[in-house]
Design goal:
The complex is a heterodimer of chains A (144) and B (180). By secondary structure, chain A is mainly α. Helices cover 78% and strands 0% of the residues of chain A. Chain A starts with a helix and ends with a helix. About 3% of the residues of chain A have low confidence. Chain B is an all-alpha fold and 180 residues long. Chain B has a domain of 87 residues: Rna Polymerase Sigma Factor, Chain: A (Orthogonal Bundle), CATH 1.10.1740. In chain B, 72% of the residues lie in helices and 0% in strands. Chain B contains nine helices and no strands. Classes of the chains: A mainly alpha (144), B mainly alpha (180). At the A-B interface, α1 and α2 of A face α2, α3, α6 and α9 of B.
Chain lengths: 144, 180
């Protein structure tokens, strides 16, 4: 059990030793040099500084508090952008629908032609007749 | 640090445009001295300290609308002064750390320094520290500032400030080990 706590005990002992060393250094420094201020200022510096500084200060600009001019265009600008977006969306959708419809119509036409040729193919594939029968079938159809 | 004002009333006066100038005048009168020493111990020279103190108050005055009263007025001013001083030191890139003798020469030539040779040696030792550590040492050693207050000014954790101060004391002590 004691082996688990050994590192912690060591670290605490080291911390205490370091703290003692620091306190010793700090006290030695204080004892040797004291806290006296070796710097000084010109005579009446702080009074003079206050007066000089206050005279040099201009009124700060309160840009944030002053109301800025808002034109009508600036006010309706977001609404204009939104309306333009809706209109363009409608155009795009309409365009897409037109393209889709054209494609559909072309496909239907193509399909109807396909049905015609398919009819002959289907006849050939599903019947037991040969090409002669087909010929006579088509001729009969033409005659009718 | 005892405050000469009721903080809430002072902030209200600074916010109100009608009383702002008078309130700021009170602030300058009360706080220019601690701020001056804070700067002066870092730059050593009176003229530089005077310029930086002026810049600090001018910046505070122009940016007064940005001060939201989240901290004490003095803490806010200390923060501006600290930034101004660190920027000044970085810009001038003083070679004091490599040549502590130049610091002694500068101090001896300064008419506003009346420390003896021992005090000059202490200043030389302090100047060997990096700027931020020097600031921590000065604030603790000379101003006896609380770590909590230092933390809100310098934006560093209390633990890091304690470690920085202890290390600074150790460095300064070892600086004088060479004398023995």
């Amino acid at each position: 059990m004691t082996t688990i706590f050994k590192p912690f005990i060591y670290s605490i002992v080291i911390d205490i030793q370091l703290y003692d060393q620091f306190m010793k250094d700090d006290k030695e420094l204080m004892a040797r040099f004291g806290k006296e201020n070796p710097f000084k200022t010109p005579e009446g510096y702080f009074e003079h500084f206050h007066e000089q500084l206050m005279n040099s200060l201009s009124e700060p600009e309160h840009a944030a508090t002053q109301p800025c001019q808002v034109t009508l265009f600036t006010r309706i600008k977001p609404w204009l952008y939104m309306a333009a977006m809706f209109i363009s969306t409608v155009f795009v959708i309409q365009g897409l629908m037109y393209v889709q419809e054209t494609k559909l119509a072309t496909n239907q036409m193509a399909n109807s032609e396909m049905i015609f040729t398919d009819e002959a193919d289907m006849f050939m594939a599903t019947s037991l007749y040969d090409e002669y029968v087909l010929y006579s079938y088509l001729t009969n159809n033409d005659n009718n | 640090m005892a405050l000469p004002f009721d903080e809430d009333i002072l902030i209200e006066r600074l916010r109100d445009h009608a009383t702002r100038r008078a309130a700021f005048s009170d602030v300058v009168k009360a706080y220019s001295e601690p701020l001056y020493w804070h700067i002066r111990r870092m730059v050593l020279n009176h003229d530089d300290a005077n310029d930086l103190l002026q810049n600090t108050f001018i910046k505070a005055w122009t940016g007064i609308d940005g001060f939201l009263g989240n901290s004490k007025v003095l803490t806010w001013l200390y923060r501006i002064a600290t930034n101004e001083t660190i920027t000044f030191l970085n810009r001038n890139n003083t070679v004091v750390m490599e040549e502590p003798e130049s610091c002694a020469t500068q101090l001896e030539a300064d008419p506003y320094f009346d420390g003896d040779s021992l005090q000059t040696r202490l200043q030389e030792a302090i100047q060997t520290l990096p700027p931020k550590q020097r600031m921590v040492f000065n604030m603790k050693y000379y101003d006896d500032m609380k770590y909590e207050e230092m933390s809100s000014i310098l934006g560093t954790s209390i633990g890091a400030l304690k470690a920085s101060y202890h290390l600074a004391v150790k460095k300064i002590s070892s600086f004088f080990d060479d004398d023995i």
